[in-house]
Amino acid sequence: MRSLSAIAAGLLAIMLPSARLPAAEAPTSVLVTTVMPRQGTLPERVTAYGVARPAFDAAATISQQVDGQVTAIAVTPGEIVRMGDKLLDFRPSPSAISLYRQAVTTLDTARATRARTAQLLAGHLATRDQLAQADKAVTDAAASLDALRLQGAGDAQTTVTAPFDGIVETVPVAQGVRVAPGTPLLTLIARNGLVVTVGVDPAEIHSIRAGETAELTRLSGGEPLAGRVIRVDGVLNPLTRMVDADISVPPDEVLSGEAFAAHIQVRLLKGWLVPHAAVLSDASGAWVFQVAGGHGVRVGVTVEVNNGDTDLVTGNIEPGNALVVDGAWQLADGMAVRTGKAL
């Protein structure tokens, strides 16, 4: 017969199974994917934002140098025109036409006077100085007439045509209006005369020079465009408090007023090219994990360039130790790792 102590021990084991001693816990490890580190270069970029607009030398103001009346307008703002296309009709004022006719009469009179003086000189009835004065009168009258003719005063009506392929920017006059000499009648932008003007942070402007390449991305979406810095201001824009820079665009690829982000390449930097997912950071800085002896080793780095999925970093990275990509956020320094598929 078993003793009472043996029976009590058996009952206790049945009622309290959790009282059994636990087995030893397996060591903790993290499953990670890795990639071998490699050195390379990435461009350091300055990002700025702006809109497409005419370059300073791309716009032409169409005007007439005599007073008159706009009798017809053939285009509207925003319209594309080709060289030679009709823009508007202009009729000189009666006073301008009268002035032209007076100039014609003055030239005819000067020529007749010169002919009589030459005949008198042949008969020794005039001097050579008188003939020289008659020649000068003819020259002056002809110059005055040519100037009026170039201004359009001699035409009953002038058809103004486009001097180049372009886009009508403004038409500040109305049909039928009378205008003074030199009044702007229309502004035309050269078809390939648009640039993207961006505002650059004054702290970064020292690194940007004319001739540097830029990648332009529409804020509305679409494929990036290649450009180049063609002008950098030396003063702040009083409205934006930024420094304006002009970037060229491919012909016929941009509409005036489109908004862009410009990524301007200022120099090439050399370092370690690592996946962006491999770089961790907090207030103390950035770091990566490398695998050494089956454990994750934390290595401090400095991120020099972020280029989407790839970062260029500098630091004491061991070229023979794999970098942790997936699973890096679960690691602590010295933690065991299980290496999965290498990237």
Secondary-structure topology with pairs:
Elements: H1 4-15, E1 29-32, E2 34-35, E3 38-54, E4 59-62, E5 68-73, E6 80-81, E7 86-92, H2 94-122, H3 128-151, E8 158-161, E9 166-170, E10 178-179, E11 186-190, E12 194-200, E13 213-218, E14 225-232, E15 243-248, E16 259-275, E17 280-282, E18 285-292, E19 295-307, E20 310-315, E21 323-324, E22 336-339
Parallel strand pairs: 1-22
Antiparallel strand pairs: 2-21, 3-12, 3-16, 4-11, 5-7, 5-10, 6-9, 7-8, 9-11, 12-15, 13-14, 13-16, 14-15, 16-20, 17-18, 18-19, 19-20
Helix pairs in contact: 2-3
Helix content: 10-25%
CATH architecture of the largest domain: Beta Barrel
* CATH topology group of the largest domain: OB fold (Dihydrolipoamide Acetyltransferase, E2P)
Strand content: 35-45%
Low-confidence stretches: 11-26
The number of strands is: 22
| Alpha-carbon distance between the two ends | 69 Å
Any idea of the CATH class of the largest domain?
Mainly Beta
Within CATH, the superfamily of the largest domain carries the name RNA polymerase II/Efflux pump adaptor protein, barrel-sandwich hybrid domain
- Please trace the helix and strand order, writing H or E for each element: HEEEEEEEHHEEEEEEEEEEEEEEE
Radius of gyration: 42 Å
Mean pLDDT: 86
Report the principal-axis shape.
rod-shaped
